[in-house]
């Protein structure tokens, strides 16, 4: 942040460049800084939210228990039954099916049906069916079996032949043998990919040879020496293509490397959380296992869970709303808040579950930090009142072109993620450096 010019000055000097039909307006500004370079900012003004996405573990119930957080059940009932606000639960939990989770919530007094829950397992099962990626090798807990009903699965001991490898939370069932089996399955897919690529290129080379030969044959006046030259070129091309054991990095790495043909294997991760809070302490989540496989195989996983923005966008779509019309509430500043903000939603952090004060300094600035979900109604109605008074919150988005050296370290990490404050208040929510970028709006 430029120390010589407050953001209020930047806002005052910026021009309104557009109003979206959904009540969101944005301004772009350009203002000098101490080093004489231009900083570019974009101020997005949100209307009051219309829908809610809500994490489960650490927000609705205490992590690893069946005890609801005080006020959670009343809050959910208030929003869903009294206000009729569109609401979905979005969880990375991959140890229980959605039906099992819904039953658990109902036991706590939280109204919920299986279809009210968006989970990575559900998305993965839909993806496998849609792409006919069978047989699939599932590295998930036994309680997730109902989600994958009807999908052909690889025998538990098979070390090759999978069309997809699905990585979830297996708790203590993760060990060297299980992780190494997943690795071998992915590598088997890699080898099949290379073979398929070599065969495809071999066919191309054969076709090229045939074309060249036909061309030569049709040219009756061609000299013997020129025929030899054409044949030699085709042979050299075929050799280079068929000998593709050294495929270029762009072909070997990442999704889509196999072109339009169906990939022999897809590595799917049910979220990419780093850790979660269990009854006996913090525990490794699925993310580190996925990262290990990505590192070992040079494959990039398809992440169908938090913090990938995809699950938030799909969930907002399921509510019938645009991302900016939806607020996500969670206890994971990166997985819930950062992921939601990256998808265009507002992200609220609660001080329950896995929350630590350290979370306010990791480069992600929540739109608000609430003591618990029990305070969500008050925050919600505050947003409604401010919209009625024409004082919508604002989010300051600093363009990535902004020289990173001008930002404090934490704010630099959070570039592109601002903070929403009600106009006219100048209140800071959270202690992240990005909060210092925000002040009362116009
Ligand atoms: Mg959580």
From TrEMBL:
Stretches for region Disordered: 241-263
GO-annotated molecular function: phosphatase activity
Coiled coil: none
GO cellular component terms attached to this protein's record: cytoplasm
Superkingdom of source: Eukaryota
Protein's name according to its UniProt entry: Uncharacterized protein
